[in-house]
Amino acid sequence: MAYELHIANKNYSSWSMRPWVLMKTLGIPFRETLTAFNDQGGPNPFDTFSPSGKVPVLVHKDLHIWDSLAIAEYLAESYPHAWPANAPARAWARSATAEMHSGFSALRDECSMNCSLTIELGEPSAALQGDLARLEALWLDGLSRFHGPWLGGSDFTTVDAFFAPVAIRLRGYCIALGADAMAYADRLLKQPYVVQWAHEAVEERLFDETHEQHCIQGRTVIDDRRKPVAD
What we know:
Blueprint lengths: L2 E5 L6 H13 L4 E4 L22 E4 L2 E4 L1 H11 L8 H16 L2 H6 L6 E4 L5 H21 L11 H15 L6 H12 L1 H12 L5 H8 L3 E5 L7
Parallel strand pairs: 1-2
Antiparallel strand pairs: 1-3, 3-4, 5-6
């Protein structure tokens, strides 16, 4: 198989989820290699295959492409439908994807991804409220400009793959936006490969205490859908 995608725990790794969902949706065959996060100290397990020591990494022939956005752009050279066909939609989608890639820091920090838990968020900080307002405005802009059901028009593309982990976060932290934005989040959550990723995350037996504590942060866990690891 020509492509190998290195990822980390599906339960936590939003960065890994993006190219995985994109490649599955585009029908690009690849071998998946999962290396779990290590919260026990010692050497970084990702250093053996990742130039940056982070995931995801796409291996193709003698190339190692790291960073989720770089992977998407590399794939688009051979699979142009990774981006919307319409030039204005493509330009908008690239801008929105780049904003997701580099922004929304409060959303990332306060609502770290965990596919298996439903958590009572409590009162969002001012910074998180700002991120959520911008998120809704961005989604509504794309949907109104290009007439949906996806952000760049009729087809699921890179920009939607990049926002799929956000939909996981909205569900997991019981966050509600306006009706149109929540309808888009619901479409993401029902997209077949988003469903598959989330299901496989719940079935994982890879627990990382650092990530777990960062997700919970003293909040109330409403639901934990994982089965405990057998003794």
